[in-house]
């Protein structure tokens, strides 16, 4: 029988996961964009006095600049009495001239006057909840199923996203509590998805199905920037609150669809064809006897998991890859402002481009990986390692290249940033899905463990970059990029040395004991060659054990 693909339930599941991960990341980064609109902008420190000669319509501007920079030309015009736009061309004693555009408008000031350290506390609070809930999220998904865990987790995220404007207007500390809870809710999504795909994705289709599903993350990153920027300017209730209202409502609708459509196993899925159901179960080695209840009651092989080198290979490679990814996620707009001298609007647009590239490469990488495995060109293990090397070494090279770019090479810098982030997409066809290869029964737990470690760079990378770049110079940023490149390479080398692609012995599915009549039926179906021999072997094994 021909097994369907485009009309299959597993593709539908991948599409629903894609949309869910889109909202997952959009609600993760929305505050990073919105806080620019929420907080009162500081007056430009380099403009000290302004005097106007009304007779000749001439403005005199006194400007003080650091690092040997001197003003070259200053011109101005005013569209209305509320706004003043200064165009300043800066000449540096250290090199060529870089154009800077500075806008100072009262109407752009936000509602809050939070200090910079308070803002940093608010933005970082998400990772507090996100990190501590990774392992419990996997355990819950394995015990109760991914469907119910994801529903409650993302429902919590949706509700507190909707409440964000209320919390922010109440107190910054209420907002911090809300962001911690959002982090806790989002932490259930990734490990639950691993549990789900361990039961839904045939091994030679796993890269495509899971890669496409996780691709929603990067599209959420990419589109959050322009959408939030548009709503800040034209949204209702002061602009920035509409970001949280719209995303919260959309995420809530997705939760309803997820609960109504998704099932934990193909056998539970409504409307699935017998052909597709048998195809998935046979490819995964799932027996007709339901082992889910046994799995829930069985103790986890914690010692085997924590001492397994393949598990540590995933953890190290994922953590190293996330260091570079989180560095770009949190610091790319800052780099574009400090070194490339982009204005705010251009910054938002160009910050989006690398994530569009990432999303496209995720789909391509998954297709290539599955092609290699399906055509038996490479084994699963070799396919994962090839994708890991591409997803770590190539981004490292382009990241170093970015560090040598100046404000006169903006186009090349954006191209290199885009290529660096895009090739990270190969990680999604490697370490990100390897949990299901080596231990499908415990994929959620292992993902929770590895993603806990991989979440730590989200907090470390911004502090490392801030410590290295106090003067905001290109040379300092080059050092930051070199460090990220070295971390990338360390992760790839460790994974190539210790990563695996086959199910580990401690994670193998227990074989059900069949009586003689069941063995005879299996012989008729071609599952066993000689039912009598198998039955005798089973009885002999029992006798030997009892003796």
UniProtKB/TrEMBL annotation:
Topology term for the membrane: Multi-pass membrane protein
Compartments where found: Membrane
Alphabetical keyword list: Membrane, Symport, Transmembrane, Transmembrane helix, Transport
Domain Major facilitator superfamily (MFS) profile positions: 13-503
InterPro entries: MFS (IPR011701), MFS_dom (IPR020846), MFS_Na/Anion_cotransporter (IPR050382), MFS_trans_sf (IPR036259)
Biological process according to GO: monoatomic anion transport
Gene Ontology cellular component terms for the protein in this record: membrane
MF GO annotations: symporter activity
Gene3D superfamilies: MFS general substrate transporter like domains
Transmembrane spans: 121-141, 148-167, 173-197, 209-231, 243-262, 305-329, 349-374, 386-406, 412-433, 445-468, 480-498
Predominant localisation class: membrane
Name of protein: Major facilitator superfamily (MFS) profile domain-containing protein
Species in which this protein is naturally found: Pinctada imbricata (Atlantic pearl-oyster)
Lineage, opening ranks: Eukaryota, Metazoa, Spiralia, Lophotrochozoa, Mollusca
